[in-house]
Amino acid sequence: MKEMIKMVVVLSVLCAISGSGLAALKQVTEPIIEEQVLTYVQAPAIESVLTGYDNDPIKDRKKFEYDGQVVMVFPAIKDGKLIGVALETASKGFGGQINVMVGFDVAAGALSGIGITTMKETPGIGSRVAESGFTAQFQGHPLKMVELKSKGGDIDAIAGATISSTGTVNAVQNALAIYNSLKDQFAQSWS
Amino acid sequence: MSKLWKEFSKGLWKELPPFKLVLGLCPVLAVTNTANNGLGMGAAVIFVLTLSNLLVSLVRKAIPAKVRIACFIVIAASLVVAVELLMQAFSYPLYQQLGIFVPLIVVNCIILGRAEAFASKNPPLLSIADGLGMGIGFTMSLTFLGSLREILGQGTWFGMHVTWDGFEPFGFMVQAPGAFVSLGVLLALMNFMENVRRKRRGLKAVEGPSHDCGSCGACGSSSKC
Q1: How far apart are the C-alpha atoms of A108 and A139, rounded to whole Å?
Q2: How large is the angle between the packed helices B68-90 and B35-58, nearest 10 degrees?
């Protein structure tokens, strides 16, 4: 009996110590990790979808509320004027979530490009949605009828990767919906 | 002092973890496609192994024998999560490269093996020496294997171009089969060197398993014995 109590006590104390230690460490590192993820995952995508800005889109980022969810929006500002925004949305692909950074050209009212930030699509097949052959189709695309050709739009799907292509297009459509409902707020917050 | 040195240095050659003890093969095979990845994984293992050895050794008298494995795993797992958080915070590109393999350090046999075989029976200072030695030996092996595969498979070493112009890299070497082949060749070379050493001392060479193969039949050479 005594041995059993000792076992329980030792293991519980050990777990309690390591649990609280890790919780503290997590709290300390959380803001640093968020910064790192922005720099290494989002920054390259933002650079590829926004052009001609003279600010730091990551530093000037703001959070907006859409449909009960928080959306992080990165602005492109030139000479104090908002010329574009980028926001990240996700949609279900073949191997999990496809996260897409979508850039909008405010003045032209068009997409300025898309970039895939994270995905788990099949290498060599679905992963080709991240290649410029596919993503270039969104550059300068007007803000309507973003849809695959098979569904009446003008985006060519990648052969053999319909689900991945659809997922990417869905993510862009989500971004479009967010942009359309929030664009007045964007103009106010960065002007 | 000499005892401390003995415990430290045994991990560097005599009990070199992946090649002599053949422990911890999952990271050895999986992350050694470049020298840099091998070094990073090794550094994480040094950190976890040394600290887990120290902690296990400190609490070794308080741990009841029946739950010792659970206690060792709790200690190793906490350290691994700590490493993962720190790596994400301060070396994100390395974290992106090593990805899934960092959490897998928990189940790396070396950590549990050293805790059970050494740290739970020895004082803290010796355990640190053992952990450091084993960790450095593991890192050296991973970096060596990574260098070999990176030079042959990509023509670079730590990202620097080291081969002559016109060198055609074997893409095979940086993929999974290349890991098995190079590990096998390295193990064969280690055994060959061991036999040469034994011959020089006038000992009989080691040849395959010395136990009774006939009774097991699982290995291909059972018909020969």
Answers
A1: 12
A2: 140
Asked if B75 and B52 touch (Cβ cutoff 8 Å), the reply is yes
* Number of separate domains in chain B: 1
Long-range Cβ pairs for the range B177-182 (8 Å, 24+): B178/B149, B178/B152, B178/B153, B179/B28, B179/B29, B179/B30, B179/B32, B179/B33, B179/B145, B179/B149, B180/B29, B182/B145, B182/B148, B182/B149
CB contact set of B193 (below 8 Å; sequence gap of 6+): none
The answer to whether position B157 is within a domain reads yes
Sorted by sequence, the CB contacts under 8 Å of residue A19 that are 6+ apart come out as B78
Q: Which domain holds residue B38?
A: 2-186
- In chain B, residues with a C-beta closer than 8 Å to the C-beta of A14 are 59, 71, 74-75
- Provide the token pair at A185: 């707020």
Classify residue B34: in a domain, yes or no. Answer: yes
Is there a domain that residue B75 lies in?
yes
Contact A32 B63 (CB under 8 A): no
Number of H helices, E strands in chain B: 8, 2
Question: What pLDDT, in 10s, does the model give residues B183-216?
Answer: 999 988 988 888 888 888 888 777 665 555 555 5
Closest of B36, B33, B17 to residue B25, by C-alpha: B17
Chain B touched by A7 (CB under 8 Å): yes
The answer to whether position B222 is within a domain reads: no
Q: Which of B66, B71, B85 sits opposite A14 (nearest CB)?
A: B71
Residue type at A182?
Answer: L
Q: For chain B, what is the mean pLDDT?
A: 85
Q: What's this model's pTM, rounded to 2 decimal places?
A: 0.73
